[in-house]
Design a protein that fits this description.
Muramoyl-pentapeptide Carboxypeptidase, domain 2; 337 residues; elongated; 8 strands; alpha+beta; two-stranded parallel sheet; 2 domains
């Protein structure tokens, strides 16, 4: 059936009217749509701030992750704020308080170096300043080098790829050295028994040594023995004397120089205080100490034999290592000393 002109025109007008009504309804619905309707933490105090500072993607991420206002409101109006990093901002601030803008800048810049799991550990043991310095200097020179993030572990093993940078543990004074508190009782017992048997004091040369001192110590040996030093001494940050669980017996520096100058594998017998070293070799484990770099374990430890450097691992672990002839790299440690 052929439509007349008036009917045709009326249908066109009807279609236009319907289209306009649909558009008007959409606009009204859009105006009344609440972007935060699915967010249970919105209130009169934070609604405007959220809407002014977050786009749709940010809002959807916030809602999907159920991120609460107290995790981002301190940062939302700062330069560089990123909603996808807000859990890191919050974790950083809770672990080590700092100016909020500093935290935002730090997380945004070094985000690739840590995760939500590792960041609190890092900030438990390192300052923001030290972390920034490490990422800008040490890591730039060696991208395979990473920070040890769990320094609650007394059995940390440092290496060419693992560092504690400028970390400073809590130590106490014992005689002329500094050492971790948990080492003191067994060290005292070892010194007392040594004196009873040998008839003289056990001469302690070093305990905990700070980063700056180790830089100078390592540099001095490096200048004198550039091709050999790394077989005996670790550089600062990778030297376990920084952990506070190691002790050095008097005579190590002289022994090292004699060994390096003579290149004689038997120098330890010729030069060392043989009576002291033999007693420690046979008895140190009874007090929780092991020779950190023992003979015939060079391939495992990466270091030449050094009878003067002892590491505290606790009596149970030390006994097992002594009886089974294990070095730390071969040992499966329990969770505590």
């Amino acid at each position: 059936m052929k439509l007349d002109f008036k009917t045709y025109l009326a249908r066109i007008i009807l279609i236009i009217v319907c289209f306009c009504i649909v558009c008007l309804c959409y606009m009204r619905m859009n105006q009344s749509y609440d972007e935060l309707a699915r967010y249970p933490y919105v209130n009169d105090e934070n609604r405007d701030i959220i809407l002014q500072n977050l786009d749709n993607d940010d809002i959807n991420y916030m809602i999907n992750q159920q991120i609460e206002p107290d995790q981002f409101m301190d940062f939302i109006e700062l330069d560089g704020f990123e909603m996808h990093n807000t859990l890191l901002y919050s974790a950083a601030k809770k672990t080590q308080n700092e100016d909020n803008q500093v935290i935002v800048n730090f997380v945004n810049r070094y985000r690739s170096h840590f995760s939500l799991k590792t960041l609190p550990n890092l900030l438990t043991y390192y300052s923001y300043h030290d972390l920034i310095t490490f990422y800008e200097t040490e890591w730039v020179l060696n991208e395979n080098l990473s920070l040890e993030s769990d320094l609650s572990n007394p059995f940390v093993i440092l290496s060419d790829s693992k560092t504690i940078y400028k970390f400073k543990p809590e130590v106490v004074s014992y005689k002329n050295i500094q050492i971790k508190q948990e080492v003191v009782d067994d060290l005292q017992a070892m010194c007392d028994d040594y004196k009873k048997v040998i008839g003289q004091e056990l001469s302690l040369y070093k305990g905990y040594v700070d980063y700056e001192t180790l830089v100078n110590f390592y540099t001095a040996f490096k200048e004198q023995y550039p091709d050999q030093v790394d077989s005996f001494i670790s550089c600062a940050g990778q030297n376990e004397l920084q952990l506070g669980y190691s002790i050095v017996i008097e005579g190590m520096s002289e022994w090292l120089e004699a060994y390096l100058n003579n290149e004689n594998e038997d120098i330890s017998v010729e030069f060392a205080n043989k009576e002291t070293l033999e007693w420690l070799q046979d008895n140190a484990y009874r007090y929780g100490f092991v020779i950190r770099y023992p003979q015939e374990k060079e391939s495992q430890t990466g270091k030449e034999y050094n009878p003067y450097l002892l590491r505290y691992v606790g009596r149970k672990n030390a006994k097992k290592m002594y009886k089974s002839n294990l070095c730390m790299e071969e040992m499966e440690f329990s969770n505590s000393l």
